[in-house]
Amino acid sequence: xxxxLRAGILGATGAVGQKFIELVAGHPWFEVTALAASERSAxxxxxxxxxxxxxxxxxxxxxxxVMQPAEPPLDCDxxxxxxxxxxxxDIETRFARAGYPVISNARNHRMDPDVPLLIPEINPGHAxxxxxxxxxxxxxxxxxxxxxVGLTMALAxxxxxxxxxxxxxxxxxxxxxxxxxxxxSLDALGNVVPFIGGEEAKMRAEPRRILGTLGAxxxxxxxxxxxxxxxxxxxxxxHLECVSVRFERMPGSLDEVVDAMRTFPTPDSVxxxxxxxxxxxxxxxxxxxxxxxxxxxxxGGMTVSIGRIRPCEVLDVKFVLLVHNTIRxxxxxxxxxAELLVRTGNLRARS
Length: 351
Ligand code: NAP
What we know:
The chain is α/β, with parallel strands linked by helices. It has helices at residues 15-24, 46-49, 60-63, 85-97, 146-162, 185-188, 199-210, 254-262, 292-295, 327-343; strands spanning 5-10, 30-37, 68-69, 78-81, 101-104, 139-142, 164-173, 213-215, 218-220, 225-232, 239-247, 281-283, 304-311, 317-323. A six-stranded parallel β-sheet has the order 3-2-1-4-5-6, with helices on both faces. It has a six-stranded mixed β-sheet with strand order 10-7-11-14-13-12. Strand 4, helix 4 (85-97) and strand 5 (101-104) form a beta-alpha-beta unit. The radius of gyration is 19 Å and the shape is globular. The chain starts with a strand and ends in an 8-residue tail after the last helix. NADP nicotinamide-adenine-dinucleotide phosphate binds next to helix 1, helix 4 and helix 10.
């Protein structure tokens, strides 16, 4: 590629927007040229508008950029969206109509029939759906909900090898998943909140679509029943999930299950992309792994850690997984989507 593609960030002041800024700083293919959020932030330099919760300080390259309203036109080739879901749907549609590729984290367009819901290592072929969108030059691509990403990445090798019929999953989700300022401190500290609005519905639907098959009529969902229970816990980053699975075809041994996860390959279409980790999944042998504090940054936050793979007394097999919710589960996943679309030729400089 000659020169970097110019990225705008919608929702740049939020928890996900800040992670975009951290991850795009120093990216070999992308640079940030425009920042937008609500009217509350518009007109102010980024470093004044943001309550920075990222690592270190606000990167110099963006600190003086003046925040703009989240409306086209913006001075960029495409936009990443970390917009609040109450406004993301209409704003993202307006950008796509104005000819901008929109690489979104928000839930609003994930289940639209012609919008790819992508985890590049699992369903890169679904990116072809952008060709069916009716926008003039623009398009919308989404990544899944943060807890869905970890679950679906762990299920993918099992579904390929044995067919997954049903899943029970209980989540322990980090505070950063609720955005900034998020959960009130008196609700969060020393406590567990056994409800996250809308989360269980997303976990039931999104893995079926990602593991589904793309045909002439669109994506045919995988036939998997999923029963999630979602909890908010006082952890900063990293969603832990306890998963039990029933298979269509029984594996010959537990080792076959472990091998399927350990050897899960990265497709050629994704290998070597700047944000692709060496391994999408890593299986840990320690009896007390994975843990958010120790393991959340595996693969730069892009690798899902899996441990405690063992027989399940009720279904067939159970295990524990950990996913970084704002990296693999949000900004990092979206950046990997954008890199895939560069490789497929769909994302390029706007004339
Ligand atoms: P957040 O911290 O609450 O940030 C929301 C952003 O949206 C802020 O930049 C805010 O700007 C902007 N915004 C709010 N109202 C707006 C309006 N009327 N017009 C334009 N911009 C507006 O939320 P977040 O956690 O970063 O999440 C952002 C999106 O990613 C959500 O759709 C969320 O569901 C999704 N997501 C989050 C995670 C996670 O782990 N946090 C993971 C996956 C997906 P101001 O600062 O100006 O108000």
